[in-house]
UniProtKB/TrEMBL annotation:
It comes from Stanieria cyanosphaera (strain ATCC 29371 / PCC 7437). It is a peripheral membrane protein. This is Taurine-transporting ATPase. It is an enzyme of class 3 (hydrolase). Its EC number is 3.6.3.36.
Length: 257
């Protein structure tokens, strides 16, 4: 087990009382898997990702990377957000080097490492460009290169393609699959987009809402992962099963509110 979440609960104190956001979350992710957690608003997806990233701590339970307990942020986890979070005054090379600079790597080493990952995401020719000179998909590829430059054990992605138009999103899906195949990277991504989750991941955790709980774990076994698969019945079956599940639990959550 590479990433392990055991009996994780997360509560917040509010003026109305104790708000349970996540309840008894259990997940196991092996090295090299592409996992998606899918749920509607209120299912605690972003809160869960923050626990894994170490940006927040569970009320109870634990998150482990290998045998190491997560107690805060660390270079073993790279993070990619929905919004590109690039520094507008830095060029692409400088943005990609930024995390390495914070880690104290010598200038020559961080330049070489960042340059390598810019080549991995296909942006070497844009190393001197500013973010404002890039398209949305290119900005997100820079953000991915920056996350990869620290050579994390797990790449965490918080709805990374939610702000992109449909054509750019589809191109980024193909890019992520190619990156995954080439690097054997362990990826954990949260999304509300059911088709995106089915297309990208080899396993899906479906989350119910209020509080967020794992309602089902689905193994996704597609014969191919190109845009053609989206026209085939096997893809539609996975999509419909997941949508029906989320719709059912969404209605339950509304009726309980």
């Amino acid at each position: 087990m590479y990433l392990q979440i055991n009996s994780l609960h997360k509560h917040f104190q509010t003026k109305q009382g104790n708000l349970v956001v996540l309840k008894n979350i259990n997940m196991t992710i092996e090295q090299g898997e592409f996992i998606c957690a899918v749920g509607a608003s209120g299912s605690g997806k972003s809160t869960l990702l923050r626990q894994i990233a170490g940006l927040d701590l569970p009320t109870s339970g634990e998150v482990k990377i290998g045998e190491k307990l997560v107690t805060g942020p660390g270079p073993d986890r790279g993070m990619v957000f929905q919004h590109y979070t690039l520094y507008p005054w830095m060029n692409v090379q400088e943005n990609t080097e930024f995390g390495l600079k914070l880690q104290g790597l010598p200038k020559k080493e961080r330049r070489e490492q960042a340059s390598y990952y810019l080549s991995v995401v296909g942006l070497s020719k844009f190393a001197k460009s500013l973010p404002k000179e890039l398209s949305g998909g290119m900005k997100q590829r820079v953000a991915i290169a920056r996350a990869l430059a620290s050579e994390p054990k797990v790449l965490l992605m918080d709805e990374p393609f939610g702000a992109l138009d449909i054509h750019t999103k589809e191109a980024m899906h193909e890019f992520m699959l190619d990156l995954w195949y080439r690097t054997n990277l362990t990826i954990f991504m949260i999304t509300h987009d059911v088709e995106e989750a089915v297309f990208l991941s080899n396993r899906i955790y479906a989350l119910g809402a209020r509080p967020g709980t794992v309602r089902k774990e689905m193994l996704i076994d597609l014969p191919e992962r190109t845009h053609h698969i989206k026209r085939q019945s096997v893809f539609h079956d996975y999509r419909d099963e997941l949508m029906d599940l989320l719709r059912k639990h969404g209605k339950e959550a509304l009726s309980a509110a």
